[in-house]
């Protein structure tokens, strides 16, 4: 049996470099045939938004994303997995979240990245607050039922 | 035993503090019991927890549902549905 891959999970205030993170998984290897990366960015909502403030639960954020990432490496044959989630103030156009999944073939990489994002949305302890361009505070972003439904489709019948 | 309660997002704002250490009275056995007891502690709590079904809970940094027993919990966090990603 091959060793189970240990995913990389980082929770950080600073921005990240998507290309560098992809290179970090593939450099010096010849067994990877597919890399899927997903980046989530902050939208400006047609000019109405000046920033998003991301609150998180330190400790649990790392632990919960770690649990989700571990489930992904158990379900799909991955050769690399990196998940980065930012907290603090993020401006329109900036990165919020990154998932990079590397595998021998594309299907596992696509599915694992999709699974990670669906689960992150409904289980990772982060909350977004809007800062409006007109200077008002805005409110907390409401959770979407469609995100909860998206996560449910990955459940196995036994769950 | 002292239990640390931690609040996030609008639960934190409505209760008016990020965390507190409490001595849970006898008879508080489950998460649902805890939410009922907290609601009786004042206006901020009542406002934060008026729709208990939407409140998400983690014990010792793991998600639990409202039927979960809380005995032995060091840290219980209450928060709204998550909106990361």
TrEMBL record, chain A:
MF (Gene Ontology): molybdopterin synthase activity
Transferase among keywords: no
E.C. numbers: 2.8.1.12
Recorded metabolic or biological pathway in which this protein acts: Cofactor biosynthesis; molybdopterin biosynthesis
Protein's GO biological process: Mo-molybdopterin cofactor biosynthetic process
Family of the protein in this entry: Belongs to the MoaE family.
Subunit and partners: Heterotetramer of 2 MoaD subunits and 2 MoaE subunits. Also stable as homodimer. The enzyme changes between these two forms during catalysis.
Protein's name in the database: Molybdopterin synthase catalytic subunit
Taxonomic lineage of the native organism: Bacteria, Pseudomonadati, Pseudomonadota, Alphaproteobacteria, Hyphomicrobiales
TrEMBL record, chain B:
Signal peptide coordinates: none
InterPro entries according to UniProt: Beta-grasp_dom_sf, Mopterin_synth/thiamin_S_b, ThiS/MoaD-like
NCBIfam families, per database record: moaD
Record-given protein name: Molybdopterin converting factor subunit 1
Lineage of origin: Bacteria, Pseudomonadati, Pseudomonadota, Alphaproteobacteria, Hyphomicrobiales
Name of the coding gene: moaD
């Amino acid at each position: 049996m091959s060793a189970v891959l240990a995913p990389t999970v980082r929770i950080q205030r600073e921005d990240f470099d998507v290309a560098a993170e992809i290179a970090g998984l593939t450099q010096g290897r010849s067994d990877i045939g597919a890399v899927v990366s997903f980046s989530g960015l902050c939208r400006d909502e047609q000019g109405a938004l000046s920033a998003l403030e991301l609150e998180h639960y330190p400790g649990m954020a790392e632990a919960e994303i770690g649990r989700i990432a571990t489930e992904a490496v158990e379900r799909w044959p991955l050769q690399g997995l990196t998940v980065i989630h930012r907290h603090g103030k993020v401006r329109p156009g900036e990165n919020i979240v990154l998932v990079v999944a590397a595998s021998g073939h594309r299907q596992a990489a696509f599915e694992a990245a999709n699974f990670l994002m669906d689960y992150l949305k409904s289980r990772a302890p982060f909350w977004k607050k809007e800062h409006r361009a007109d200077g008002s505070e805005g409110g907390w972003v409401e959770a979407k039922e469609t995100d909860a439904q998206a996560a449910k489709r990955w459940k196995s019948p036994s769950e | 035993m002292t239990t640390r309660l931690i609040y996030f997002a609008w639960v934190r704002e409505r209760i008016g503090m990020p965390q507190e250490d409490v001595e849970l009275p006898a008879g508080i056995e489950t998460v649902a019991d805890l939410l009922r007891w907290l609601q009786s502690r004042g206006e901020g709590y009542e406002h934060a927890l008026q729709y208990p079904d939407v409140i998400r809970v983690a014990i010792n940094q793991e998600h639990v549902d409202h039927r979960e027993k809380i005995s032995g919990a060091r840290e219980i966090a209450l928060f709204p549905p998550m909106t990361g990603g």
